[in-house]
Amino acid sequence: MNSLDEHLVKGVGVYAGTFDPITNGHFDIIKRAAHVFDKLIVAVADVGKPGLLFSLEERIAMVRESVDLWGEPAVHVCGFGGLLVKFVRSVGARVVVRGLRAVSDYEYESQMAMTNRQLDSDIETFFIMTSKEYSFISSSIVKEVARHGGDYSDFVPGHVVAKLEKAFGRS
Ligand code: COA
């Protein structure tokens, strides 16, 4: 490892989201963040967001299966409830990881980053630009295509396709 690489390695990062379901875009961020932090915790939010298709347990299981198939031991998956900054502190981290897909994400993400910083000034938000092939993907788009029987197999890991097909009564 050269000295530049050593500077990139910075303890624990927390990549939080709803993951309803995890997409290849999320996984792109997980893989890239895992190369920046010693340990990455993928934190699946127990949120009461309207329109969720999968339970917290199902969402955690899908993220965990993706990570297990990849086989990177430094990535851990768990659920969390309540404030993200409290969860981040509870696992000994100081950094929240978020993916940015397009300019349209900026407003929401900056609002969230500033709120988190207001709640706990020690917590920093670290943004990773989503790779361009995934920049248009969202969990809602995937669910919309799946609901109407379109081909979304390029957008999510293979095991998630099976879960979506089941959820929409096609297996
Ligand atoms: N690839 C593909 N899709 C992506 C993506 C990427 N790299 N990055 C974001 N998205 C999509 C998601 O699929 C999701 O799409 P959807 O709206 O169609 O479902 C959308 O962008 C945002 O999802 P996600 O990144 O999972 O974040 P979120 O907004 O669902 O999660 C929490 C936000 C849960 C992290 C945040 O609400 C939170 O921290 N809640 C805890 C309570 C709290 O602390 N609140 C105060 C902080 S604001």
Structural class designation: alpha/beta
Mean pLDDT: 92
Query: Which parts are unreliable, with pLDDT below 50 for 5 consecutive residues or more?
Result: none
Give me the strand/helix succession: HEHEHEHEHEHH
* Outline: globular
Number of helices: 7
**Alpha carbon gap, first and last residue:** 48 Å
In what range is the share of β-strand residues?
A: 15-25%
Number of strands: 5
Which small-molecule ligands are present, each listed once? coenzyme A
Question: Percent range for helical residues?
Answer: 40-55%
Counting copies of identical and different chains, the oligomeric state is: single chain
**CA gyration radius, whole angstroms:** 16 Å
Explain how this protein is built.
The protein is an alpha/beta fold and 171 residues long. The chain contains 7 helices and 5 strands; from the N terminus they run αβαβαβαβαβαα. The chain has helices at 3-8, 24-34, 56-70, 84-90, 103-119, 139-147, 158-167, and strands at residues 12-17, 39-45, 75-80, 95-100, 124-129. It has a 5-stranded parallel sheet with strand order 3-2-1-4-5, with helices on both faces. It is globular. The model has no long low-confidence stretch (mean pLDDT 92). The structure holds coenzyme A. Coenzyme A (COA) binds next to strand 1, helix 2, helix 5 and helix 6.
Main attributes of the structure:
globular; about 170 residues; about 20% strand; binds coenzyme A; alpha/beta; 7 helices
What would a concise description of this structure say?
The chain has seven helices and five strands; from the N terminus they run αβαβαβαβαβαα.
